[in-house]
Amino acid sequence: MTAAPSIEGSWQERFAGVRDAFAANFSDRGELGAAVHITVAGRPVVDVWAGWMDEERTRTWQRDTLVDVFSVGKAMATLCVLLLVDRGEVEIDSPVARYWPEFAAAGKRDLTVRTLLSHRAGLPAVRQTLPESAMYDWDLMVEALAAAEPWWPPGSTHGYHVNTFGFLTGEVVRRVSGASIGEFFRREVAQPLAADFHFGLDARDDARTAEYVFGGEGSGAVEGAEERRTAEADEDRRFLFSRVYLNPPGLSGIGTVNTRAWRGAEIPSANGHASASGIACIYGALAELLSTDTLGEAIREHSAGTDFVLRRPSRFGLGFQLTQPERPLGAGARSFGHFGVGGSLGFADPDRQVAFAYVMNRSVPGWQNPRNRALVDATYACL
């Protein structure tokens, strides 16, 4: 055990158990720097931060510290598409090719927006080897995906689109709105809500951005990858797996996450940078941003069971991860949100009116994360 750093911020006395669980993450579970923000019925009940922004422990975490939250951004990319659905500019059951004509190639003419959002499109990776820095070239990435043949018949099963989901949804947003997903998200979500969440981080924000430290080497450090080396002996599956996470190299953030090029790019599945308060703010406002019908459809189960890519149970609505026994989002049966690499998490429980956000900068390899689980369990114990 190590001594916990000073816990900064505020919490309602009723939620002191969350503060205690947060402190235990530092003393008992190897936390480096982190923040938690929770609202109930729109009111903040926990707003705490602690630790360090860098591995050398020279910069202390602040309330407005930003950090890469990886797949937490998939929910924000989803939100952009759903805003267009609500406005009648995108029809959920229309083919993607209606908005993005080149996408019709290789048997994808009838693949719908619903299929895309529910991780059933069969496009979790690109087969051909991509240049090393391809993830920084939006046009190159979406052209490769438009030309790609699906890895399974679209709609026949589901598989986590680990790094392609943001490019796929982002190009739909770009074709319909005329704006990049970073521009659209900033204009339609982040700025109106004053929410500190960014796709394409400005260099002026580098000083308040935490260094991200992977807790392992190679692909074993990224979400979903840590158990597949021995479990997936089949050559075809190993090929799929390598393409999902490492085509191009650096696509998952390994070796790239702390660079200016990575921070400045728009890679919605992997490089959203946010504060805990920014994430909770957005989840708390979803009922204002989206109609009841659209939000209700988005959090209805669309995919469940053994994931084709991860080879473990997963459960999705439209873009959002749904609560499941293996990784519960609290006690709410309708809770939805998204996890990120190493433990970051944002979710909403519409029945209890909870918005929860946890961000951190040192990952814990493993699909089931003890730090976020402790915080979520403490939250519900206090309700």
Tell me what the structure shows:
This protein has 383 residues and is of the alpha+beta class. It has a single domain (62-382), classed as DD-peptidase/beta-lactamase superfamily (Beta-lactamase). The chain has helices at 16-28, 72-86, 113-117, 138-147, 165-177, 181-193, 228-231, 235-246, 260-264, 276-284, 286-289, 292-298, 370-382, and strands spanning 8-11, 33-40, 43-51, 67-68, 197-198, 273-274, 303-306, 313-316, 321-322, 336-339, 345-349, 354-360. The strands form 3 sheets. It has a 7-stranded antiparallel beta sheet with strand order 1-3-2-12-11-10-9, with helices on both faces. A 3-stranded antiparallel beta sheet has the order 4-6-5. Helix 2 packs parallel to helix 5 (165-177). The radius of gyration is 19 Å and the shape is globular.
Set out the fold topology.
Blueprint: E1 8-11, H1 16-28, E2 33-40, E3 43-51, E4 67-68, H2 72-86, H3 113-117, H4 138-147, H5 165-177, H6 181-193, E5 197-198, H7 228-231, H8 235-246, H9 260-264, E6 273-274, H10 276-284, H11 286-289, H12 292-298, E7 303-306, E8 313-316, E9 321-322, E10 336-339, E11 345-349, E12 354-360, H13 370-382
Antiparallel strand pairs: 1-3, 2-3, 2-12, 4-6, 5-6, 7-8, 9-10, 10-11, 11-12
Helix pairs in contact: 1-13, 2-5
Précis, in short:
By secondary structure, the chain is of the alpha+beta class.
Describe the structure using short key phrases.
Beta-lactamase, 3-stranded antiparallel beta sheet, 383 residues, 7-stranded antiparallel beta sheet
